[in-house]
Design goal:
The structure is a single chain. This protein has two domains: 2-256, Type I PLP-dependent aspartate aminotransferase-like (Major domain) (Aspartate Aminotransferase, domain 2), CATH 3.40.640.10; 259-394, Aspartate Aminotransferase, domain 1. Helix content is 39%, strand content 15%. The chain is an alpha/beta fold.
């Protein structure tokens, strides 16, 4: 298997996705890993029980099924280790709890995932951690925001809902000069289109609910750390007793096998829709980092290998009091698009974005922001559905 591992390091991404994380020869040749359900693990004798001198000791510390997913993520991330948690939000909060203590200060990007902000403003505040939000476009200018007690910088690129790009290498370099750990929510790009640890990030976070699982039926997160920060993450994971279920890990690993081809389709369709929306009079702006018109497009072009299927646009509405009614008219007219949270599945989804919690990165003023997840449906049908939405907007 070492020959195979060496070969896979230089293989194409779809080849790697088809083979990483599990060797069929480890279990009688069966192609997919078995689902191992476990709480109690038995020991052969008292000495091994005392010393824990065996690979598996208890269900919360991993099983062959969850290990297969962790190994696959390590192969994609280039990380020293990965832990599995029950949700994407837990994938953010567990490292926060691992690396932050009472009296510490954290810098959180202002375009952060909404539930992450809520955790910072409630749980972290109650635990005595000071939080400041910074402009996603700060880049190297973030250096001015560090305090003597700053311990963590959290990044997300592109940003939730408005898709601002961050200069991750510059931010990471500044953070490391101040002795800070850098975490990144990389759910949008996946490790296929951006590898955070290669750009200075210490801890890469994914809601594998999204593209790795790919079918809108699994909730799970992964956290992958470099060598310097891996042990502390692993310790916190064990201390908190937070683990992912083997059935879900199996489903995510199975979804991972086709993520490359699915992402290609998501990317292609989303870009076609985004370019089309730019030409529409009903649209004030399209918020997609892979478009040359997007303000931080050059950062995306420099650092990222691709784009995924989620972006936003600003509906052109001339009066603020009409924002909600026009947005609701658009959404309610859609038939292919479902109205739902999350993304990364096979179906298209839409919602109106709420940006009222922003502190620094203000919301667009030209109209309501509509977020689209472009699924695997035919582009012509997606466009026709959006046309229905635009027609409904004109009637209110």
């Amino acid at each position: 298997m070492k020959d195979k591992d060496t070969f896979l390091q230089n293989a194409g991404i779809n080849t790697r996705l088809s083979h990483i994380g599990y060797s069929p020869l480890d279990f009688h040749g069966f192609v997919n890993p078995p689902v191992v359900h476990a709480s109690t693990v038995l020991f052969p004798n008292a000495r091994v029980m005392e010393t824990h001198d065996q690979k598996y000791t208890y269900g919360t510390r991993g099983t062959p099924t969850t290990d297969a997913l962790c190994e696959a993520m390590d192969a994609l991330e280039g990380s020293a280790g990965t832990v599995i948690v029950p949700s994407g939000l837990a994938a953010v909060t567990v490292p926060f709890l691992a690396y932050l203590s009472a009296g510490d200060h954290a810098l959180i990007v202002d375009s952060v995932y909404g539930p992450t902000r809520f955790f910072c403003d409630t749980m972290l505040k109650r635990l005595g951690v000071e939080v400041d939000y910074y402009d996603p476009l700060a880049g190297a200018g973030i250096e001015q925001l560090f305090k003597p007690n700053t311990r963590l910088v959290h990044t997300e690129a592109p940003g939730s809902n408005t898709f601002e790009m961050q200069d991750i290498p510059a931010i990471s370099a500044a953070a490391h000069r101040h002795g800070c750990v850098v975490t990144m929510d990389n759910t949008w790009a996946t490790p296929l289109y951006f590898k955070p640890l290669d750009h200075g990030v210490d801890v890469s976070i994914h809601a594998v609910t999204k593209y790795p699982a790919g079918h809108s039926d699994i909730v799970m997160g992964t956290v992958s750390a470099n060598e310097t920060h891996w042990q502390r993450l692993l310790d916190a994971h064990g201390q908190l007793g937070i683990c992912g279920a083997p059935d879900d890990a199996y489903q995510v690993l199975r979804g991972l096998r086709t993520m490359g081809v699915r992402l290609e389709r998501h990317q292609e369709s989303a870009l076609e829709i985004a370019r089309w929306l730019e030409s529409r009079e009903e649209v004030a702006r399209v918020l997609h980092p892979a478009l040359p018109s997007f303000p931080s497009h050059e950062i995306w072009k420099r650092d990222f290998k691709g784009s995924s299927g989620i972006f936003s646009f600003v509906l052109a509405v001339d009066r603020a009091e009409k924002f909600k009614v026009k947005a609701h008219a658009f959404l309610d007219a859609l038939r292919i698009f479902g109205l739902g949270y999350s993304w990364g599945g096979f179906e298209s989804l839409a919602l109106q974005v709420n940006l009222n919690d922003r502190r620094v990165a203000k919301a667009p003023t030209e109209g309501p922001v509509i977020r689209l997840q472009i699924g695997l449906e035919d582009v012509a049908d997606i466009k026709a559905d959006i046309e229905k939405g635009f027609a409904a907007v004109k009637e209110v």
